[in-house]
TrEMBL record:
Protein's GO biological process: methylglyoxal catabolic process to D-lactate via S-lactoyl-glutathione
Lineage: Eukaryota, Metazoa, Spiralia, Gnathifera, Rotifera
InterPro entries referenced in this protein's UniProt entry, alphabetically: Class_I_gatase-like (IPR029062), DJ-1/PfpI (IPR002818), Prot/Nucl_acid_deglycase (IPR050325)
CDD domains: GATase1_Hsp31_like (cd03141)
Keyword annotations: Lyase, Stress response
Gene3D superfamilies: 3.40.50.880
Protein name listed in UniProt: DJ-1/PfpI domain-containing protein
Any one Gene Ontology molecular-function term assigned to this protein's record: glyoxalase III activity
Entry's family note: Belongs to the peptidase C56 family. HSP31-like subfamily.
Organism: Adineta steineri
Keyword Acetylation on entry: no
């Protein structure tokens, strides 16, 4: 039987409002990738397709992280993330789960991207796993369920916190604060009592991780949920 596939989505956006570089965040791709890639085929997509912009800060901050080092030189992984498919080429029917890698980039392009919204809604309507880490949940803020309600409404959720954003002084460098938006959409927002601590929420098919420290654990939560299906 063919190996089932998971879609990892990266941002195509590479600049903060202040002009400094951003993109997708290295460990938030690498850590869940290595949890899942021995069980599933991982495919990669982004709004523009092709090579998605890696946040240079994440490469610097995680330059001693074993899995991040491996990921940057892993030919199989590179073939995917340096040659992403366009979201417009993707069919939800082909995958068992959808995962959004974080980094600040996803706050800019994915929330308003109509192709992205429809794709996520297709996954949701097919009762498949919809998952994200850190700023990745920003990609889902305009995604609605079959009844036209936000998929966050009444569900447990986590993401990069306003407190964490404040600590790295990027509150004003992004279009909106993800924690604030999830709460406005009716999410039952949760986080670790300590900033930067790992935290994962699972509410049915919605699986979310809070921050870079949660990237491995969100991969495990996705794996666990798919094992039960």
């Amino acid at each position: 039987m063919a190996t089932k596939k998971i879609l990892f989505v990266l941002t195509s956006h590479d600049k903060f409002l202040n002009g400094k570089p951003t993109g997708w965040y290295l460990p938030e791709a690498a850590h869940p990738y290595y949890v899942l890639e021995s069980h599933f085929n991982i495919e990669w997509a982004s709004p523009k397709g092709g090579k998605a912009p890696l946040d240079p800060t994440s490469a610097e901050q995680f330059k001693d992280d074993a899995e991040c080092i491996k990921f940057l030189s892993d030919n199989k992984a590179k073939q995917g993330y340096e040659n992403t498919k366009k979201l417009s080429e993707i069919n939800a029917n082909d995958y068992v789960a959808l995962f959004y890698v974080g980094g600040h980039g996803p706050c800019f392009d994915l929330p308003e991207d109509k192709t992205n919204i429809k794709l996520a809604e297709d996954f949701w309507k097919q009762e498949k796993i919809v998952s994200a880490v850190c700023h990745g949940p920003a990609a889902l803020v305009n995604v609605k369920d079959q009844n036209g309600k936000s998929i966050f409404s009444g569900r447990k959720a986590t993401c990069f916190s306003n407190d964490e954003e404040e600590q790295i002084k990027l509150t004003d460098a992004i279009p909106f604060l993800v924690e604030t938006r999830l709460k406005e959409l009716g999410a039952n927002y949760e986080k670790n009592s300590a900033a930067w601590g790992s935290y994962v929420t699972v509410d049915g098919q919605l699986i979310l991780g809070a921050n870079p420290a949660s990237a491995h654990d969100v991969g495990l939560a996705i794996l666990n949920a798919l094992d039960k299906k």
